[in-house]
Design goal:
Blueprint: H1 18-32, E1 48-51, E2 55-62, E3 66-74, E4 81-82, E5 92-95, E6 98-104, H2 107-119, E7 123-124, E8 130-133, H3 135-152, E9 154-157, H4 159-165, E10 168-180, E11 184-192, E12 198-199, H5 201-209, E13 214-216, E14 222-225, H6 227-240, E15 243-246, E16 249-253, H7 257-267, E17 270-272, H8 305-319, E18 324-326, H9 334-344, E19 351-355, H10 360-370, E20 376-378, E21 396-400, H11 401-411, E22 415-422, H12 433-440, E23 442-449, H13 458-468, H14 476-488, H15 493-503, E24 507-508, E25 522-529, H16 533-556, H17 559-578, H18 592-606, E26 611-615, H19 618-630, E27 635-638, H20 645-654, E28 660-664, H21 665-668, E29 679-682, H22 689-696, E30 708-715, H23 719-729, H24 731-736, H25 743-746, H26 750-756
């Protein structure tokens, strides 16, 4: 059925102008794409549609006993109006800064602003205004919450309110940096008002025990104790686990300097640091990285702007002998940013990269592609112990978590310049051999790469940070009691805010939407992997059998029979590359690609992406389906036998909880709109990349507002690699025959088929 009001589009062209055109693009077009295959005319680029960011202004009036407020919001040049009123007026307007963007009224942001006022004690009035009653509540608001609102909104006071609020002072922590050493700084902690009157901790506790958080000062003004702020600061001091040399004097490890400084800033507390002792320990985004970028050579011109920023972030941490977590969303190039760092630090000794077995080949290929001047050594195979003697001469040593466990007694004797753990979830449990082996590594710089947002994985966080920055989060038992358990029990915003503040200096996460201006609309990446030992044995055996079987044919049989044997042989080899069970072999390690798929899906789902997985083999899709069911992951499924195709498509488009769609390349490669997905995985390569591109475009559709990332899984030293090379060789012919499914395969000469089977 067509969407309401869409039938008239079938009769004649529709012309829209001005606001009506904007309304159509913002509201009608997304509904129409569920019923129509929509394309833009040549040279036409449809604008991006996103929620606007309103500016808020709060006007306050009243007395010490009762304050009224009016919250206004403004969008661009539009007149201001009361926030979260007339919500049926869903206006849209062009972005004055970007002609290719349409902005929507952001009602959730308006409601959040209203909720923020309600959380600090204001109540709504019938006239869509706000009121705060009671002198204690009014005094507390102006002492504690008003300064925070001023940072985010334009807050104005009447002359009367300005006069009596000047008589209110807030008691806040004051920090004085009184000394520092190589890896510590010393802080004197006191409680003081802006007017200079100091309170002892005992005086504050006595007031609070009597049920009061306000008192008169010697100058006649009213002092308010920010109990939540004091509690927060006491928890921060406890986090830092300082040595207390005398009452109120704390010696704190240098790694906590950014955390202490950010806490003071957020609470509005003063820091007296006349010698700038604290400053030298804080790695700010503006800190100079010297000539590090000059050492990148040709790679400097390859990196995108945000990747340069990531490289500089790693460099700044390393310059301060600190580690960190690079947690960029998948597809943004964590590997190349890390390689840039290793390139700039070449000559400082070998760096060790530990990754899942399925990604070892990818690291090797990426290093060869982006940093060919670095000597790379891969530790693999039964005789890898003989390679250890070559490690000092290497720039990058690559191994897997599985081999790290076995080789740790040898690896722990080496001093690496840098140790990098890729896919950090492999050490999330600190009791496992993986984690214990990683902790035992010796390296000057330690970094972790993960596509999972760390703040959402508190249970795993301690172990990962204990590798990157040993000891920073304190003992595991203490972290569990003070962070993990409170957050697991439900909403604990103060704990969450403190944890985010604690992590922020050592965690860098960018999402595609944050760096969209630096990205193409579609990112395509080949992800190589090596066959398992069982697959390699079977592949080589099949290849020998095929080659020997072609011998007699070549001597006299007809060319058609020979060609058929070749194509059948190629099919068997491609099936072996996917999974041995496709050719009837049951082994313990039937598929390297399934392991790689697990890694990619895990990172994608953790990063809140939705994924289309394509394969030309329906039996392979069945194996994937079994795998998803084992892991209790919800999915949709479509192959040539699926009867209710559109129902399955609608289910995926409309149910955000379904994160994976398994699709047969031939059944679902064209004609479907699956713009709810932003990640595409081609499990096996098809002869014609145009068919793969059409499948990728199921997600990369009109109405897709996110960057689409497409991964192509390729097994190393197999016919799949040769197919890729042949695709490039025949690119012009492929492009000319884009509407055909098998032009390359049918157009292969006998010599080219023989080359594939060589």
């Amino acid at each position: 059925a067509l969407p309401a009001g869409a039938a008239h589009l079938l009769g004649s062209p529709l012309s829209l102008e001005g606001d009506r055109a904007l309304q159509f693009l913002a509201f009608d077009l997304p509904r129409l794409r569920d019923a129509f295959d929509i394309s833009a005319g040549e040279g036409v680029r449809l604008p991006e549609v996103i929620p606007a960011t309103p500016a808020f202004a709060l006007r306050l009036a009243g007395t010490l006993n009762s304050v009224t407020g009016e919250l206004l919001c403004t969008y661009g040049e539009r007149p201001p109006f009361k926030a979260a009123t007339n919500e049926q007026d869903q206006f849209v307007f062009r972005d004055s800064q970007n002609a290719e963007r349409i902005l929507l009224r952001n009602i959730p942001a308006e409601r959040a602003a209203v909720a923020r006022l309600e959380q600090v004690g204001f109540a709504r009035t019938d006239a869509a205004g706000f009121v705060l009653h009671g002198q204690p509540e009014v005094v507390r608001f102006f002492a504690i919450d008003y300064p925070k609102l001023q940072r985010d909104w334009n807050v104005t006071l009447t002359a009367q309110v300005e006069k009596w609020t000047s008589e209110i002072e807030r008691v806040t922590p004051r920090l004085e940096i009184v000394g520092s050493g190589v890896d510590w700084f010393e802080v004197r902690y006191s409680l003081i008002t802006p007017g200079g009157q100091e309170f002892s901790n005992a005086e504050i506790q006595q007031l609070l025990r009597s049920g009061r958080n306000q008192t008169r000062l010697r100058n006649g003004r009213l002092a308010v104790i920010d109990t939540a702020g004091l509690e927060d600061f006491e928890q921060v001091i406890r986090d830092c686990d300082p040595a207390q040399t005398e009452p109120g004097l704390y010696r704190i490890n240098r790694t906590h300097a950014p955390y202490v400084e950010e806490t003071a800033r957020e609470l509005g507390s003063a820091i007296a640091d006349r010698r700038e002792a604290l400053k030298k320990f804080i790695t700010s985004a503006n800190a100079d990285v010297g000539d590090a970028k000059d050492k990148l050579g040709a790679l400097a011109g390859t990196l995108r702007e945000y990747q340069v920023a990531g490289f500089e972030w790693l460099t700044r941490l390393a310059a301060n002998n600190l580690g960190g977590i690079l947690a960029d969303e998948m597809g943004l190039g964590k590997t190349v940013q890390t390689l840039a760092f290793l390139r700039a630090h070449q000559g400082n000794g070998p760096a060790l990269v530990v990754c899942p077995t399925s990604l070892v080949t990818n690291w090797q290929n990426e290093a060869q592609k982006f940093t060919p001047e670095l000597k790379t050594l891969v530790l693999e195979g039964a005789n890898r112990a003989a390679l250890f003697i070559s490690m000092p001469a290497a720039d990058i040593v690559i191994t897997s978590y599985a081999l790290l466990r076995r080789d740790i007694d040898d690896l722990r004797t080496f001093q690496f310049s840098t140790a990098v753990l890729d896919e950090a979830q492999h050490i999330k449990n600190p009791e496992t051999q993986n984690a214990q082996s990683a902790f035992a590594l010796r390296a000057k710089h330690r970094f972790v790469l993960t596509g999972t947002p760390m703040e959402n994985s508190v249970r795993d966080l301690w172990s990962i940070m204990n590798f990157a920055l040993p000891g920073y989060l304190g003992p595991h038992k203490d972290f569990r009691e003070r962070y993990e358990l409170p957050l697991a029990r439900g909403a604990a915003p103060d704990v969450q805010r403190r944890l985010s503040r604690r992590l922020q200096p050592f965690l860098l996460r960018r999402r595609k939407r944050d760096v969209a201006k630096d990205l193409p609309e579609k990112i395509e990446q080949v992800v190589p992997c090596s066959l398992t030992s069982s697959q390699r044995s079977a592949y080589d055996a099949f290849l020998r059998e095929i080659q020997s079987g072609l011998g007699p044919v070549a001597k006299g049989a007809n060319a058609g029979a020979k060609r058929m044997k070749m194509l059948t042989g190629l099919l068997r080899l491609r099936q072996v590359c996917c999974d041995l069970r496709l050719v009837g072999l049951e082994k313990e390690d039937p598929s390297a690609k399934l392991e790689l798929l697990d890694e990619l899906l895990g990172e994608a789902i953790d990063g809140e992406h939705r994924v289309l997985v394509f394969s030309q083999f329906v039996s392979m899709l069945h194996l994937m389906r079994d795998r998803l069911e084992e892991r209790k992951l919800s999915y949709c499924y479509l192959d040539g036998s699926t009867k209710h195709r559109q129902e399955e498509v609608n289910r995926f488009q409309n149910e955000a909880a379904i994160q994976v769609f398994l699709i047969s390349l031939k059944a679902g490669g064209v004609g479907l709109n699956l713009s709810a997905a932003d990640t595409v995985i081609h499990f096996d390569p098809w002869w014609n990349p145009a068919v793969e591109a059409q499948a990728t475009d199921r997600a990369h559709r009109i109405g897709q507002t996110r960057v689409v990332t497409a991964y192509k899984l390729i097994t190393r030293d197999t016919v799949e690699e040769k197919i890729l090379k042949l695709q490039e060789k025949k690119r012009a012919a492929i492009d000319a025959a884009i509407d055909s499914e098998e032009p390359l395969m049918n157009g292969l000469t006998t010599e080219e088929l023989e080359e594939l089977l060589a």
